[in-house]
Amino acid sequence: MTHPNSVTVNDRSYNWPTQTLVVICCDGSEPDYMELARAKGLMPNLNAIIEKGENLRGHSVVPSFTNPNNLSIVTGRPPAVHGISGNFFLEPESGEEVMMNDPKFLRAPTIFEGFQKAGARVAVVTAKDKLRRLLGNNLAFDGTAISFSSEKADQATLAEHGIENVCELVGMDVPDVYSAELSEFVFAAGVKLLQTFKPDLMYLSTTDYVQHKFAPDTDGANAFYVMMDKYLGELDAAGAIIVLTADHGMKAKTRADGTPDVIYLQDQLDEWVGDGKSKVILPITDPYVIHHGALGSFATVYLEDSVDAQAVADQIAALSGIHVVYDSERGCREFELPRDRMGDLIVVSRDTKVLGTRETEHDLSALKEPLRSHGGITEQEIPIVVNRHTANLNQPLRNFDAFSIGLNHIAQAAQAAE
Ligand SMILES: [Zn+2]
Questions:
Q1: Which residues in the chain come in under a pLDDT of 50?
Q2: Which one, 166, 313, 320, 326, has least CB within 10 Å?
Q3: Domain with CATH 3.30.1360.110 in the chain
Q4: How far, in Å, are 33, 68, 215, 312, 367 from residue 220 at the CA level?
Q5: How far apart are CA 362 and CA 358, in angstroms?
Q6: Which CATH code is given to the segment(s) 6-250+379-417?
């Protein structure tokens, strides 16, 4: 079958894959997780991959949250282009707080859409169903595309997901939504799809349930990376090019006594400017909050016109643990975010600190372990591991360069193209 030499999506050009490219987004995979597991000899396959390839670092998008970064990776562009700046935002037209997981909020085609239209076979597997519709947006399920979540694997149909009987194929039952197995299912499905469906491009996106719960080099974390290592070995042995990255890092967000280290920003603002004059939006908010209590290190603040935004920004900046406070224009420029989906101020907390709304609005009773979370600049560093040598990479690397790295910067392909 004929195909173009390259495909352009969102003004970035990608060479046609010469062998299957598998991009893995290991959710919340702070670089230390793999480094410490590797150092203990728990990831022999990863070591072999790095030996013949690359172990690089890059930066995620800020807010260092799951959806903005997954969509950046699969569109090759930051949220200013694709529009998905969080899980949750204040819709300007309605003034309502709405979930942003509907594809109607996506403003750019995915790399999968572009390649399928040019004749490629594409497969997308995610852990949580909330991401599936965004990642699989505009795919035609005509036998050349597959897109499903492990969360709802048993409900996949040929018409809506391009595949059925997924559990039989994978050899696993649908896992609990709060489990390491939800991610294992993604990897196991990837290995099977590589053998049976033979995609040109495949994207495997896990969930950070384990990373929220366990710090690097703990038994719980290491068990996850031992599991992942087995599947990395199988994907590598099958001949795929692998680019392994993460949507964001993950840090402990606790005080010395183990309690969450929270700035309740809405309580603070109500005290400073009065009730009803401001609205704090936490884009981390989603229906699955058990593992982080809706506490992350990024917030955006809407202010009534009567409020002196600069004065409030200065007050917030003076709080202990605040990394930056930007007005909307500066913040959207620095972080490449869509202006119409951000409030008047953008607030990022650092290191152990997280941002909340009102103390009464966060149910932390379900948090069984010390809080670990993300969202800020301090969780921006992510791994980029490639199982081939690379050439001519543009620094600084971003996680959303993953498809470009795998298609345009593998050393051999780069030489051949010269
Ligand atoms: Zn994530």
A1: 413-418
A2: 320
A3: 262-373
A4: 11, 27, 8, 42, 16
A5: 7
A6: 3.40.720.10
CA of 1 to the centre of ligand 1 (A): 37
Note the pLDDT of residue 350: 94
Q: How far does residue 285's CA lie from ligand 1's centre (Å)?
A: 12
Report the 10 Å Cβ neighbour count for 203.
Answer: 28
Tens digits of residue pLDDT in 167-190: 999 999 999 888 999 999 999 999
Task: Residue 120: name the closest of 39, 207, 19 by CA.
Answer: 19
Q: Match 């884009």 to its residue by tokens.
A: 283
Tell me the per-residue pLDDT of 357-413, one tens digit each, with 9 for 90 and over: 999 888 888 788 899 999 999 999 999 999 999 999 989 999 999 999 999 999 974
Residue range(s) occupied by CATH 3.40.720.10 in the chain: 6-250+379-417
Ion ligand 1: residues, CB < 5 A: 27-28, 66, 208, 247
Residue 207 C-alpha to ligand 1 middle, in angstroms?
Answer: 6
Q: What angle do CA 249, 250, 255 make, to 5 degrees?
A: 150
Q: Domain 262-373 carries which CATH code? A: 3.30.1360.110
Cα distance between residue 170 and residue 151, in whole Å: 13
Strands 21-25 and 298-303: unpaired
Q: What are φ and ψ of residue 339, in 5° steps?
A: -55, -40
Range list of H helices, 53-121: 66-75, 79-82, 111-117
pLDDT, residue 87, reads 86
Closest CA to 399 of 205, 248, 264: 248
Which one-letter amino acid corresponds to residue 413?
A: A
Could you give the C-alpha distances from 345 to 4, 118, 232, 308, 312, in angstroms and in order?
45, 41, 42, 11, 9
